[in-house]
Design a protein that fits this description.
The chain is α/β, with parallel strands linked by helices. It has ten helices and ten strands. The protein starts with 7 loop residues before the first helix and ends with a helix.
Length: about 325
């Protein structure tokens, strides 16, 4: 952080971005927030190229959509595989973590300087100390939603936090997580000076559920209504985000637009509980395998989950903007 400082305007932008998402969750802002970007960041040049395109588009749809770039640096693995830019920035199992942290932080500074807010998954409990001051929204993934460590960490994050339902599609684990994260916690952690300390958190009242599907999709009006009932029963705010990928797309990136349009139509038809969406998107569609010969990797193509391409992304957000324009004010007043 000493090596990579930034001016006060960057810090103020990050605060403003967090506040915008909080206002949407509080219903003071009738827009939706949309987290959109690559499944994972593996190439800084293409990430910055994508960010430039997304910044221009976000300005165009800003009346209806609060757009954040999906900037995922860490990848949870069921078995083995590339663990993300922070862990292995050179993509060769050399695990130069220091380089990964520096590279990740510099990209976040670059995004903030062009005034594009960043969203990421909080996976490792230590790495937020290195990059958390530049993040506007955080996710807790389906594999870690049940983890006490991640619930405690999320209770002290300065960002709104989305908890994904478990990989089987059930929402009860995520709802338990939301109840936990809203409370105070006390736990061991690492300070900004690199010392072990006991942390005391106030709780995070901006936790919300992210429906990402499971064995079957769960973005339909019926599934959203069922989630609303579960949230209400737990005494939690009716704030629901829909992940258009993963289980909701059947792990087929080509179905993400179908999910996205369905969710937008639900909002237009009067759903007030849906506050956000997530898309896995890159410059080019599809995915590619990570190989030892990095020179053959195609530019702007994901090396983890397959993504929709930029043209599809742009059209989806522009179409959503047109549909949402007449109702944004009504959602806010409601």
């Amino acid at each position: 952080m000493r090596e990579q400082p930034f001016d006060e305007s960057v810090l103020e932008f990050v605060r403003k971005s967090r506040s915008e998402v909080e206002s949407i969750l509080d219903r003071k802002d009738g827009r939706l927030f949309v987290v959109v970007g690559p499944c994972s960041i593996h190439d800084i040049a293409s990430a910055k190229d994508y960010a430039t395109k997304l910044k221009s588009l976000s300005d165009e749809v800003s009346e209806t959509l609060c757009v954040l770039m999906r900037v995922y640096f860490e990848k949870p693995r069921t078995t083995v595989g590339w663990k993300g830019l922070i862990n292995d920035p050179d993509l060769d199992d050399s695990f130069n973590v220091r380089k990964g942290l520096v590279t990740a932080r510099q990209l976040l500074i670059d995004l903030a300087q062009i005034r594009l807010p960043a969203a990421t998954e909080a996976l490792d409990p230590i790495s937020p100390q290195y990059i958390g001051d530049l993040i506007a929204w955080s996710a807790i993934g389906a594999r870690t939603t049940e983890s006490q460590t991640h619930r405690e960490m999320a209770s002290g994050l300065s960002t709104p936090v989305g908890f994904k339902n478990s990989t089987d599609g059930k929402v009860d684990v995520a709802i338990n997580a939301l109840r936990s994260v809203a409370k105070q916690h006390h736990f061991l952690g690492m300070t900004g000076n690199g010392r072990t300390a006991v942390f005391h958190t106030r709780g995070n009242r901006y936790g919300h559920i992210v429906l990402r599907g499971g064995f079957t999709p769960n973005y339909s009006p019926e599934c959203v209504a069922e989630c609303e009932r579960a949230l209400a029963s737990a005494g939690l705010p009716l704030n629901i985000m829909i992940d258009c990928s993963h289980g909701n797309s059947g792990k087929d990136y080509r179905r993400q637009p179908e999910v996205f349009r369905s969710v937008i139509d639900q909002v237009v038809s009067g759903s007030s509980s849906i506050v956000g969406l997530m898309l896995e998107s890159h410059i080019e569609e599809g995915s590619q395998n990570l190989t030892e010969d990095l020179s053959i990797l195609r530019y702007g193509v994901s090396i983890t989950d397959a993504c929709i391409g930029w043209q599809t992304t742009e059209q989806l957000l522009l179409d959503a903007h047109k549909k949402l324009l007449p109702i944004v004010g009504k959602r806010q007043s409601a």
